[in-house]
Amino acid sequence: MIHERNRVALARLIDPLEAGSARWGNALTDSARNMLLMEVGRRSRAYWAYWAWDEQVWTVFVASVTGEIRHRRRAHLVACGYLFGRHRRLHHRVGMPKLRPLADFVFGHGAVDPALEQVCTLL
Fold first, then answer.
1. For residue 87, with 0-12 CB atoms within 10 Å meaning exposed, 13-18 middle and 19 or more buried, which class applies?
2. Which of 1, 26, 33, 72 has the least CB density, counted as fewest CB within 10 Å?
3. pTM score, two decimals?
């Protein structure tokens, strides 16, 4: 049984992740969320709050868990860093070449299409 104090602490970590990624809806979302929570558990108490991680901590974390095999989770984790840590250049630091999946996760599917069409028209 989970002690109530621990349940509240865990909810504070899990609830924002579930709310922020609810519309992403696929197995990779669950996997990325679990990877993030495992990293929270691995770190010392000073770094439990993923929203307080600096860009360097996020960069090391994302780079370490999204190697060749797991690169498909990179957009999910970078989106979490963007949404919860406000790290706007994390995609660049971890070498994420395709920004469309990230934009869809952060702003919603297709939300950037009107702006992209306008830019393409102007160019």
1. buried
2. 1
3. 0.84
Q: What is the pLDDT of residues 9-64, one digit of tens each?
A: 788 888 999 999 988 877 888 888 888 988 888 876 666 789 999 999 999 999 98
DSSP-assigned letters across all residues of the chain = ---HHHHHHHHHHHHHHHHHHTTT-SHHHHHHHHHHHHHHHHS-GGG--GGG--HHHHHHHHHHH-STTTGGGHHHHHHHHHHHH--TTHHHHTT----HHHHHHHH-TTTTHHHHHHHHHH-
25 or 91, which is more confident: 91
Q: Tally the residues of the chain.
A: 123
The radius of gyration computed from the CA coordinates of the chain, to the nearest angstrom, equals 16
Tokens 């991680």 label which residue?
Answer: 53
Specify whether the CB–CB gap between 13 and 40 falls below 8 A: yes
Q: Give me 90's structure tokens.
A: 């994390």
